[in-house]
Amino acid sequence: MKLHRMNYRAQWYDLIDRYETILRNEQTLRWVGFNRYQAEHQALGVYKLICFAERISKDPKAPWGHLTTEQALNLYLINKHHWPRSEVADLQESDYLFLLRDELTQMKLDTQEAEPVRSTFEADRNALQELSVHWN
Asked: Of the candidates 4, 83, 67, which has an alpha carbon nearest to the alpha carbon of residue 91?
């Protein structure tokens, strides 16, 4: 059974578009001072969350089925904290970002996951250097 493969580039650019739209429509969400890459920085957290879930959902020890992003994240939290399913049933993206903050800050994107992020910043060596802590 061949499992679906995530399109990392499409996922990354969809998130950037999402955050650019949010920031354009809600000026109060802009960070203080000028930050040329605010949308990209905000997208990075969600992108890493999606990549984290993708890794869990494609665990080769469970080849019989592909979990959704939400199922993968819920399974991780249930196993880590020994929570019942009811505890994770209504979690939102912001909840996952909060609850998995340590995992996401420590997680390094692999080459395939990092490629679209790197390509976004290849023209700005300083930004590329600053963000390089997020990949191998």
From this structure: 83
State whether residue 115 is helix, strand or coil.
helix
Q: Classify 117 in phi/psi space as left (phi over 0), alpha (psi -120 to 50) or beta.
A: alpha
Contact 113, 8 (CB under 8 A): yes
By three-state DSSP, how is residue 132 classified? helix
DSSP SS3 for 135: strand
Mean pLDDT of 57-65: 76
Structure tokens at 82: 């020994």
SS3 of residue 109 by DSSP: strand
pLDDT tens-digit series, residues 92-131: 999 999 999 999 999 999 999 999 999 999 999 999 999 9
> Which DSSP category does 47 fall into?
H
Position 4 pLDDT exceeds 80 = no
Rounded CA-CA distance 53/61 in Å is: 15
